[in-house]
Amino acid sequence: MFVAVEFWLFTAVVLVLYYLVRGGWQNLLLLAASYAIYTYLEPRFVLLLIGLTLFNFWVGKRLVAGVTQRRRYLWAAVAANVGVLALFKYGTGLAEIVNPLLGKLGLANEPLVVNLLLPLGLSFYSFRALAYVFDVYNGQFEPESNLIDFSLYIAFFPQIVSGPIMRPKVFIEASKNTRRFSQQNIVDGLTFVLMGLFYKVAIADPLYSSLDLSVAGIRELTSAAAWSEFILYTVRIYADFAGYSLLAIGVSVWFGLPIIQNFRQPYFSKTIGEFWDRWHISLSSWIRDYIFYPLSRSLLRRWGNQRALLIQVIAFMVSMTISGMWHGTGLKFVVWGALHGVYLSIERVLFPRARAKPKKGTPPWRIRVQAVVGITVTLIAVSAAWVFFRVESVTGAVIFFQRLFSSNPFVEITNLWWVNVLVPIALLLLIDIPQAAANNPLVIWQLRLLWRVILCVLLLLGILIFGSQTHAPFIYSGF
Q: What percent of the chain clears pLDDT 70, i.e. is strictly above it?
């Protein structure tokens, strides 16, 4: 929706009206706008969104301390939110997993076929609802008494399709106050929007490929073509999702509502643990707070500190496998999540001090070498895992890895190959290097005026020159 002119015109009208009203009318206007957009994008499942919102609003009041059987209400809320998500997400993917098993057991005369459409944004707004349920149950947030404010938290239109997954306390408390027009918010929001459009239109969309990556199609790849796919999909998935997040953040800032930085130059990470601190931060922190920590504490109570290392490994594997299952249906996403669980476990067991600061007196050259090695190894590991996102099946992934080393790629590489690979990387670094160096997503707007104008002109020229005529769908909107 962020690449449609109609969306920006609609947002501009809503923004003007928004600052003409005060108090609760602002939330009511935003809620109406959110439902209008969702109805336009996904009219079949508006009632599902309303139903889950009303249910979680109702059950939240029954999760406070002192309420009889509040634990049962908690499990009912978990079952409802997870159950609906699993029904739509795995109703279709179930066939991919079950059919081979039934065939081996000799039980399937006809293949299992399940056709369910995944409601747009369900993965994201169901996790926002669960965050609310858990926080109320744990006493971190009082149950919300205003249905409009709660509904806005669930359905806020810039964030409903692909996040970020905001926490209820921060968002709802901020929405209680009248937001007044701020020139700084407009400028900051425009900065995020401009960078988001650059990521999406100038980098991600031109990399959208109609290349056949079925098993048969993968077998036809040359080694050079496979390496091109390997490198460029790593660039594309980051530019695409980071671009969406920046656009969502920018629009949220315009309305004066809180946001969370969802990406922080993750490909500069020196360890896998650091990568997950920088990649899809709202989801990784959700998994950490609501799955990893509770599971670790539960196992520690049962087994004691003497098995702490084993407990961490189990918690990594369970958390990351669930993360994989959240991302998509089919065995390939389970493998992707489990693979990251293995990465984190190896890092924790074999390299426990990988994320520690260098010892005082360590030569600068050694620190730089360690950083380069760490970034290289982490990027290769992450890129290898992305293969399971790119191809259609685990079998396809295995064949893809074989094609990478099927011949000498340097014999097949042409000058055009280098141009196609290096240009999007250079465009990505144009934004990421200044942000990484300053550790500041708004560093462009804090430079001297001349440099700010130059960089903004470069971004606009990049959008015009490299912008694709094909507006590919956002990758994470399918999750």
A: 93
* Dihedral over Cα of 138, 140, 143, 147: its sign: negative
- Above 60 in pLDDT, residue 228? yes
Cα three-residue angle 204-160-198, rounded to 5 degrees: 25
Q: Kindly indicate the confidence band of residue 100, based on its pLDDT and cuts at 50, 70 and 90.
A: low
Per-residue pLDDT of 115-149, as tens digits, reads 456 788 889 999 999 999 999 999 998 999 999 99
Best CA proximity match to 26, nearest among 142, 109, 206, 146: 146
Q: CB-based contacts of 471: which residues, under 8 Å, 6+ apart?
A: 3, 201, 205
**Using CA atoms, how far apart are residues 148 and 133, in angstroms rounded to an integer?**
17
Phi–psi pair at 396, nearest 5 degrees: -60, -35
Please give the Cα distance from 456 to 197 (Å, whole number).
12
327 has catalytic annotation: yes
Taking CA atoms, 231 is separated from 207, 265, 390, 422, 435, in Å, by: 11, 16, 11, 10, 22
The 3-class secondary structure across the chain, one letter per residue, is CCCCHHHHHHHHHHHHHHCCCCCHHHHHHHHHHHHHHHHHHCHHHHHHHHHHHHHHHHHHCCCCCCCCCHHHHHHHHHHHHHHHHHHHHHHHHHHHHHHHHHHHHCCCCCCCCCCCCCCCCHHHHHHHHHHHHHHHHCCCCCCCCCHHHHHHHHHCCCCCCCCCCCCHHHHHHHHCCCCCCCHHHHHHHHHHHHHHHHHHHHHHHHHCCCCCCCHHHHHCCCHHHHHHHHHHHHHHHHHHHHHHHHHHHHHHHHCCCCCCCCCCCHHHCCCHHHHHHHCCHHHHHHHHHHHHHHHHHHHHHHHCHHHHHHHHHHHHHHHHHHHHHHHCCCHHHHHHHHHHHHHHHHHHHHCCCCCCCCCCCCCHHHHHHHHHHHHHHHHHHHHHHHHHHHCCCHHHHHHHHHHHCCCCHHHHCCHHHHHHHHHHHHHHHHHHHHHHHHCCCCHHHHCCHHHHHHHHHHHHHHHHHHCCCCCCCCHHHHC
Considering the chain, what is the average pLDDT of its residues?
Answer: 88
Say how far apart CA 320 and CA 344 lie, in whole Å.
9
On whether the CB atoms of residues 73 and 134 are closer than 8 A, the answer is: no
pLDDT-derived band at 92, boundaries 50, 70, 90: low
Give me the pLDDT at residue 102, please.
59
Give me the residue label for tokens 């014999």: 411
The answer to whether 200 touches 239, Cβ cutoff 8 Å, is yes
Residue of 262, 264, 275, 268 whose CA lies nearest to 343: 275
Neighbour count for residue 341 (Cβ, 10 Å): 23
Q: How far apart are CA 335 and CA 312, in angstroms?
A: 19
**Main-chain phi, psi angles of 474, to 5 degrees:** -65, 130
